[in-house]
């Protein structure tokens, strides 16, 4: 077993019956981090733990703060029905906050009308909160066993930015993006070792550009207490056909690269002895 937990919050494909969106399903699927949970099977063989969401991020996104939602996206005056104050970020402005309100890639409205506060609370209780509870349990259990835990928050990105991105439409993405919230979410060695391994394989890798890590990295990182979180974004063009969403001929190659990346972290993962679980 390794002191390593991975999670894939955006690869879910089980669309709830009450979604009630007005989107073309094929376009809606472009929001999915397709096959990401399958890319990391090698890490499981090495003793890591992995959690992946079954529900789609467009229904509710566990990688957003629960209050990252525009008041204008709710039925009039129903913001007062929520047990917290809404604090929307640029993600909500783009239609990709807690609940996606726009359809990728061009940003048409997701719903014919604003959502009821009760619908938001139902999604939080039925999907968002259970995902966070499950991830917290994985991390805490690993921490109790080893006295430290490393967390890789796993994602994929389209090869080019869409109209719903913080980048200009058409911007080409690198092969990998490592996000450590500007060096605050993990031991710098974790970022450095991932970067050095991936660049040594010939890949273009950036750090915190354009992705720094969002809620799941923020919420569960505490490097001062040996809780280290990093976000890893993988360019979909490396392993899949973005149009058909099918795995491409290099899928197995990327699986091997990611397994080797975990191997490369061994000196960091094994720097302290495991302790007996409390």
UniProtKB/TrEMBL annotation:
Enzyme class: hydrolase
Pfam families: FGase (PF05013)
EC assignment: 3.5.1.68
Protein's UniProt keywords contain Cytoplasm: no
Alphabetical list of Gene3D superfamilies matching this protein: Zn-dependent exopeptidases
Record keywords, A-Z: Hydrolase
GO molecular function: N-formylglutamate deformylase activity
The protein's name in its UniProt record: N-formylglutamate deformylase
Source organism of this protein record: hydrothermal vent metagenome
Lineage: unclassified sequences, metagenomes, ecological metagenomes
